[in-house]
Amino acid sequence: MNKIPATIGTGAPQQTGDTMMHKNVEAVLNGLKVAVFVVDADHRILFRNAASSGLFGVGLKGRDLADFVPNKKCLRAVDAVLAGQDQASVDVKLQLVVPTSFSVTVVRMASDANPQDTHAIVSLEDVSHIREAEQMRSDFVANVSHELRSPLTALYGFIETLQGPAKDDREAHERFLGLMETEAQRMARLIDDLLSLSKLESAERVAPVELNDVDLILRRVKASLQPITNRENAEVVLEISEHLPMVHGDLDELTQVFSNLIENAAKYGRVNSVVTVHAGVDEENPEMLRISVTDQGEGIAAKHITRLTERFYRIDKGRSRNKGGTGLGLAIVKHILMRHRGELQIASELGEGSVFSVLLPIAVEGDRL
Ligand SMILES: Nc1ncnc2c1ncn2[C@@H]1O[C@H](COP(=O)(O)OP(=O)(O)O)[C@@H](O)[C@H]1O
Ligand SMILES: [Mg+2]
């Protein structure tokens, strides 16, 4: 059933021209991505376009619209239009295979032949991706505000104490100023990470062209992380293949990727543990470089693994905060690797530690420095 009612063309389709027009209107409606239903005054379906069958199933002719769109708001809009209103728009959420958000528009259509017959054209546009993006944006703003507010609240607390009870206590001044510095540094790190993310988002489509040497980057990162690895009592062991091929990459961004992965491995590993960084041509994909960071930590449960690159997702919030984390590190890593046409793979078993692997495309021969 895909026949359009006669009233949707330019009149009764007896003449060849009208039939052509009729067919064209049908073709246009079937070419739309939006689901379109035409219903009569009793909500009976007279026509539905191709997109509607993908969403709501086939064989709906003659059945009640309410069987497929069981939503009071939507049906009230249809009734309002059938009762004389020119058009109505509502947003609804329907439980299809998955919950799906629709923007619904209902317009009135009077029959040329029988003006007393009123039909309604109901179009349902799937706007789930827009609603999800809106939700993510508002969750993100709420998270950022919360993350900034916590150090700010701590700072206010220290200021009040210094102005009041600890006003003349020199020893307390020293201690509180130290704590205030830590909180201010936390805010600065968060702002730096947020700026990194927004810069990366705007540059995501442009792949970096400079040639870089991962071997050199890993050695520098290891040296610069020494204060943290010493604090965590972690030993970083580099196992880098000889003559490691070069990659196209941004020096600062690749440094950020390996810093975060090695720092995480040291922070979330066990005390006195070893972090092994292995770099070489990937065995399965000889056109890629594989750099894996293996720790001896407690490992990560499967349910967390897929979510680790979400902004502010942390398995243990308190622990991450204590270690000075912002919860944005792996989100930044993911974005940098997307821009580098690379990939992040996470493998872990509880109690066995974790392996965070970076895959980067090797620069083609002739591009070597
Ligand atoms: N090597 C690891 N072992 C166990 N958990 C990890 C490891 N790396 C990351 N995680 C988890 O992933 C979370 C997110 O990491 P990240 O985005 O770098 O944020 P941060 O380090 O600032 O907390 C961490 O808080 C931690 O719970
Ligand atoms: Mg981190």
Labels describing this entry:
3 domains, Helix Hairpins, binds adenosine-5'-diphosphate, 12 strands, five-stranded mixed sheet, Beta-Lactamase, binds magnesium ion, alpha+beta, elongated, Heat Shock Protein 90, 369 residues
Look up the CATH topology of the largest domain: Heat Shock Protein 90
Please tell me the total number of domains.
3
Largest beta sheet, briefly?
A: 5 strands, antiparallel
CATH class division of the largest domain: Alpha Beta
Could you say which overall geometry the principal axes of the C-alpha atoms support? elongated
Which small molecules are bound? adenosine-5'-diphosphate, magnesium ion
Low-confidence stretches: 9-15
Distance between the termini: 65 Å
Write down how many β-strands occur, each being a DSSP E stretch of 2 or more residues.
Answer: 12
Helicity range of the residues?
40-55%
With helices defined by DSSP (H or I, 4 residues minimum), what is the helix count?
12
Which architecture of the largest domain would the CATH scheme give at its second level? 2-Layer Sandwich
* Strand content range: 15-25%
* Global mean pLDDT: 89
How is the largest sheet built, in terms of strand order?
A: 2-1-5-4-3
CATH homologous group name of the largest domain: Histidine kinase-like ATPase, C-terminal domain
